[in-house]
Prior knowledge:
Radius of gyration: 21 Å
Helix content: under 10%
Number of helices: 1
CATH topology: Porin
Distance between the termini: 6 Å
Order of helices and strands: EEEEEEEEEEEEEEEEHEEE
Shape: globular
CATH class: Mainly Beta
Strand order of the largest sheet: 2-3-4-7-8-9-10-11-12-13-14-15-16-17-18-19
CATH superfamily: Porin
Amino acid sequence: MKKVLFATTALIATAGMAAAELNISGYGRFGLSYDSGGPNAALEGTGGYPSNGNDRAVNGVSKTNIISRLRLQFDYSTVTDGGVELGGRMRAEADNGNNAPQVMLWSAPRFYATYGGFTVGVGNINGAFENMAGTYLETRAVGAGLDGAQFMSHVGNVNNEYFNWDYYDSDGNVTNGVEVMYSAGGFGGHISYSTSNGAVAMDRIAANLSYTFGDWTVALGHQSSDNAWEDKTAVSLSGDLGQFGVRVAYADNEGIDKFGLYGNVELGAASRLVAWVTSEDAVSAADVAAGRGDNRDNVAGSNGQEGTSYGINYSYDLGAGASFETGYRRGSQDNNTFQAGVVFSF
């Protein structure tokens, strides 16, 4: 990735201040997306994660749309006399999809301090469950196609309870948390905590551990939350076999098991193919009675997510940080998504 590096000084003309570094990077992507819609489109919702797909007869949105995103990322850092690196990150991002253009939004900042193998982050944190190894696809979108195709490939996403963990949010939503990361040799660890203040405070705490031995990485992650249905535990095992890569992952999402099997292959010097399949178990009747969403097949009003989802992604390197990306995903609720376009980094 090409990056523009600026040595900046304080805006106030103060003699003797040390220079800091501002690193500006980002990416753009644009292309076409087709969503077929499932057989129970009127019951499966009209957006969010996951969508039933688009149907003008149901939600007034075309099945085929131009989708795009522009992201600018600002990373800034300095090093104290004692050798502590201090820094932070902010993003500006705008999307255009499903005929719904979005103005440029700024993220809340994340700040960090690094010394030795330890990093402490505060603010808009990365999140320990989000940062667990072996849970995202080996693609530019870390999911299928251009925008992840609703990330059904992630074992933590079940039953319309998608991304119910802490992660760095690019769109202006505020997660106020703290996290500590440590790495040494093949070991890695990450613990995070966040709180949402209100009439009743809602807290999340998560952790992950990983170990890399040779060409293999094993990881374990867990989250405990005051919010309903957010407790989860996940494990993954990833291996690099030269031209081929393999991965398995599993998560218990507070009673809903989801398994994933993944593989990727390098096709020559410029091409990569990634394929995956996941299986989501049914929610319990007791949880549905307690107010949880219903993913069970053959149940009236179900979101239809019980069962198997699968997909494939092809990437061709165009050089200079650009690639052609195309991906197909079939959801367990019989929604087909196909995307193709270009991604370029700067």
